[in-house]
Specification:
With 349 residues, the chain is an alpha/beta fold. Helices cover 38% and strands 13% of the residues. The strands form three sheets. It has a six-stranded parallel β-sheet, with helices on both faces. It has a two-stranded parallel ribbon with strand order 1-2. It has a two-stranded parallel sheet with strand order 3-4. Helix 1 links the parallel strand 1 and strand 2. Helix 8 runs antiparallel to helix 9. The chain is globular and about 80 Å long.
């Protein structure tokens, strides 16, 4: 087994690449570095993509191109709308894990305006006195004149005035060892309030962390909010997630925050995301936007689409050339709906 990330350089990276290309490595674990140009695999047969929502369509296709007729397993707590569309068409088989791990408690979620920032800070102080650890997430690293959003660096400076060295900072522009040191201090050491961007969205497991504050929650997507909330509630203590928003809220932003209050079911959140954003292109790379149905609505006709999918599969199995009486009728129907170009679907894989 080998590990390949952006941190491997020089001779160490060359050794890993040689092991992958020559077949000496039977299993490779890594980040986006695995499907960059210059990385070759000998008989790549299976790709497992964890946290699928963090990868773009082009990136997943690039990885799939590293092998021939390879199997792909994608995993995520929050399927992107395009994935739900693919499952509705029957192009992806689905296994759904609806249970939480043993001992996990539901996370209480509250939504409040940014004007109550003082109350939130006071609540964080009380939580720290009780032995809790706190995530405080901001949407940007530094202030932008174009976007009036809280900056992680500025928020950290403000909280450091209150909590001193107990407040730590981590964001994507920090070097690896620097980030590792802060995360270790938060998990095991003296840092009790971790101010961060979305770099802590996945892969972070600190059971003692029971409070999550998200500033400008209206600027985050549903998948991000659900993943961020998943960083807490990983121990035996009660946990709370505070979503702070700036007025005025758009209808879409209000709907996103409402569904976060109502449920922690990743599939239901993904279905709401599908309703709000659309599913994108089945054959293209756009991951949101409404598909080009003439009559159906994926959010309203899921059961009918499943029946249609099964019927289409039956036809393909029994009469793939559409030569029977029903097959010829289907040819006419495809023509009338301008779907005689559906051969593209077969070629798209």
């Amino acid at each position: 087994m080998v590990l390949l990330t952006g941190r491997e350089k020089g001779k160490a990276r060359a050794r890993v690449l040689d092991a992958l290309a020559g077949g000496d490595a039977a299993l490779s674990v890594g980040t986006h570095a695995l499907f960059q140009e210059g990385v070759e695999f000998r008989r790549l047969a299976l790709a497992v993509i964890d946290e699928q929502h963090r990868f773009g369509v082009h990136q997943r296709l690039t990885l799939a191109a590293k092998g021939r007729a390879m199997d792909v397993l994608v995993m995520t707590a929050t399927p992107i709308p395009r994935t739900l569309l693919l499952t509705a068409y029957g192009d992806m088989d689905v296994s759904r894990l609806a249970e939480k791990p043993p001992g996990r408690k539901p996370v209480e979620t509250r939504v409040m305006p940014l004007e109550r920032l003082g109350d939130v800070t006071a609540a964080v102080s009380r939580a720290l006195d009780g032995g809790a650890k706190v995530y405080w997430v901001c949407p940007l690293v530094e202030e932008s004149e174009a976007i009036d959003a809280a900056a992680a660096e500025d928020r950290h400076a403000e909280l450091a005035k209150i909590f001193g060295a107990r407040a730590g900072l981590v964001h994507g522009r920090m070097k690896g060892p620097e980030k590792d040191a802060v995360m270790e201090a938060f998990a095991e050491g003296s840092v009790d309030v971790l101010v961060s961007t979305t770099v802590i969205e996945v892969g972070v497991d600190v059971p003692r962390a029971t409070v999550m504050v998200v500033e400008h929650a209206e600027r985050f997507g549903l998948a991000q909010l659900h993943q961020l909330r998943g960083r807490i509630g990983r121990g035996e203590d009660d946990s709370i997630c505070l979503l702070l928003y700036a007025r005025p809220l758009t209808e879409t932003a209000r709907a996103r925050l409402q569904i976060m209050r109502e449920t922690d079911d990743g599939f239901r959140i993904a279905e709401e995301d599908l309703r709000l954003r659309g599913a994108g292109e089945l054959l293209g790379t756009r991951q949101s936007g409404m598909p080009e149905f003439r009559l159906a609505d994926l959010s309203q006709h899921a059961e009918e689409l499943a029946a249609a999918r099964d019927d289409a599969q039956l036809i393909l199995d029994k009469d793939p050339e559409l030569e029977s009486v029903r097959g010829r009728a289907l040819r006419t129907l495809l023509y009338l709906f301008e779907r005689d170009a559906a051969v593209k679907y077969l070629r798209s894989g």
